[in-house]
Amino acid sequence: MKKNFTIAFILCSIYCICQEKDVEIEKLLTTYRSYLNSNLDSSIYYINKVKDVSIKKENKFYLAKAYYGLGYCNYQKGNIKNTEYFVNKSIPIALESKNSDVLSLAYNQLGLVNSDKGNYETALKLFLKALDIAEKNNLDKNKSYALANLGNLFETQNDTVSAIKYYQEDYNFTKEKNMIVEQFGSCSNLALMVKNRDPEQALKYFNIALSIAEKLDYKIEQFTIHVNLSHFFLNNKKYKNPDRALIHINKSKELIESIGDPSLYFYYYYNLGIYFGKKNQTSESIKNFQKAEEISKTSGISLDEKISLMQDLYKAFEKEGDYKQANFYQQNFHKLNDSIFTLKKNKDITEIITKYGVDKKNAQIQLLNQQKELQARKNKLIIISALFFIFLLAGILYFVHKRSQFQKKLRHQENINHQQEKEKLLQEQELKKMTALIEGQNSERNRIAKDLHDGVAGDLAGLKLLLANENKQLNNKNLEKIQDGLSHIFQEIREISHNLSINNIKGKKLKDLLFNLQSSYQKRKEFAFEMHIYPENAVDDLDETKIIDIYRILQELLNNISKHANANDVDLSINRHNDDINIILSDDGIGFDVSKQGVGLKNVQERLQTLSGKINIDSQKDNGTTVIIEFKV
C-alpha cells in the first residue's frame, strides 16, 4: 500500500492573520473549517454566510477569503468551472485589500486546476507566482504548499530530478522553520521518490517521517509508513531483510487495533503472506493470502489490489504444486480483469428484467383505472354540463375585466418604453460624443506627433549638424556638450512622437504592445516592472478600438507612476474569465489624494466610458496605489 504524503493545504486561510479580526465572521470561519473534512456541503453553506456578512459589512479582506473558500470547496467536489470562477473572483479583491495570504493560495489553486487539465506550463507559472508572493510576505506555510505542488507537478511529468529538487527544498525549509506537520509531508514525498535510486536516503526519510507521525500521534500515517517500510525491506535488493520487514508488519497490526478500521487487516495479512513467501514457507503464505482474500470480499479494497492478490495466490499454489487451486485463482485473476465489463453487462440485464416486470404490472393497473375512470366520467358529465353555463358567464365577465386591466397596463408600458427609448437615445448620443472626442484626441495626437517628428526634430537635427561643422575648427568643449544635449532632446522628441502616434499601435496585438511598453520602462530602469496575463490568450481576440483604448489607458497610468509615484516595484496583472476582464496595476510608491485627479486620469475615465468599463483607485500615503479596471469584452 503506497501513499504519497503531499501536504494538502490544511483548510483555506486558517493561518491568515487579519488586520482587524471580526468576531462574527471568525466564528463563521471556524464552523466552516470544522466541516471541511467531513461535510463539504455544510462548509459551502457557512463560507457563503461569510461572503454575505463580508459584503454587508463592506469588509473586502474577509470577502477575498470567502470567494477563495468557495473555490477551494468546489475543487474538492470536482466542480472545476466553479473553482475557476470563485478563485478568479478572489484575486482582485485580495489585491485591493492587500490579503497576500489569499492571493498566494489563489494562484496555488489555479495551478492545481491547470495541472489537472494537463496545462503544465501554465501550472508552473502559477505555482511560481504563488511561491514568489509567499516569500515576499513571509508566508511560511504557503511557501511549503507551493514547493510541494511544484514537486508534484514535475513528478506528474516524470521529471524526477526537478521533483526531488523541490521536495528537497521544501524539506530543508520546513526543517529550518521547525514546521513539523509540513516536514512530515516533505519527508514522506522524498522517501517514496528516492527509494529506488538512493535506498539509504529513502530509509532515512522514512524514519524521520515515522518519528514525526509518532510525535503528532498520526495513527493512520504511522500505519502507512510501516506498510511502506515492510515493502522496502521485503523488496529492496540492498536492504532486503524479511525479519526487519516482519517488525514493521507487526507494528502495523498494533496500529490497526488503535485505529479501529478492520479493513486495514487486508494489508497486514497480505504483507504477512509476502513475508512467508520470501521465507519459503509457502503454506503459511497461502493461509495469510486467503485471510486477506476474505477481507477483500466485504471491505472497500481497490480492484487493482484484488487483482494483485489473485496473482500472488495462483503463483503460491503453483509453487506448492497444487495446480487445481493455482488454476482456480488464475481464472479469478482473469475474471477480475474483465469484471468491469461483466458488472456493467449484468447491470444492463437486470434493468431489462426489472423494466419488463414493472411494465406488466403497470398494464394491469392501467386497465382497472380505465374502467373506474369510465364510470366516473358518466357521473361527472351531468354536473359538468350544469356548471358549464355558470363558468361561461363568469368567464365572459372575467374577460371583460381583464381586458380593461390589460389596456391600462399596455398604455403604462408604452409610456415606460417611450422613456427608455429616450434615455437610450441620450446614451447613444453621449457615447457618440465621447467616441468623437477620443477620435479627435487621436487625430490631434497624430498631428502633434507629425509636427514634432518632421518639424521640431528636423530643426534640432539641422542645428546639431550646423554646430558640428562650426566646431570642427573651434574644437570648443562647451559646444560639444551642447551637441550632446541636442542629441538627447532629439531622442526624447522622437520617443514622444512615437508614443503619441496612433500609427505605431494599429495592426498590433495588445500583448505585444504591453511587452514593448514593459521593455521600455525596464531599459530606463525607473522601477522594476512585472507583468502577468492569465490565461495567456486573455486579450488576443480584442478588436482594434479596444486595444487602442486599453493601451492608452495603461500608458497614461504608467506615465503617472513614472512622474509622480517614486515607486520601486510595479505589477501589472490582466485576468479574464469568460467575457469579464479585470486589470490590476499596483505600485509601492508614495501614493496620492484620490479626490484630486488631474487631466491624465480624466482622459482615462473618458476612454473607459467607450468601453462601458469602471475603475477603482485605492491609494494611501507612503503605502502605494492600486488601480482596478473592469469591463466586458
TrEMBL record:
Family matches, as InterPro entries: HATPase_C_sf, HATPase_dom, His_kinase_dom, Sensor_HK_TwoCompSys, Sig_transdc_His_kin_sub3_dim/P, TPR-like_helical_dom_sf, TPR_rpt
Residues in the signal sequence: none
PROSITE patterns: HIS_KIN (PS50109), TPR (PS50005)
Domain Histidine kinase span(s) in chain numbering: 447-633
Coiled coil: 358-429
The keyword Glycoprotein is annotated on this UniProt entry: no
Catalytic function, reaction form: ATP + protein L-histidine = ADP + protein N-phospho-L-histidine
Cited Pfam families: HATPase_c, HisKA_3, TPR_12, TPR_8
Keyword entries, A-Z: ATP-binding, Coiled coil, Kinase, Membrane, Nucleotide-binding, Phosphoprotein, TPR repeat, Transferase, Transmembrane, Transmembrane helix, Two-component regulatory system
TPR repeat intervals: 104-137, 266-299
Protein known as: histidine kinase
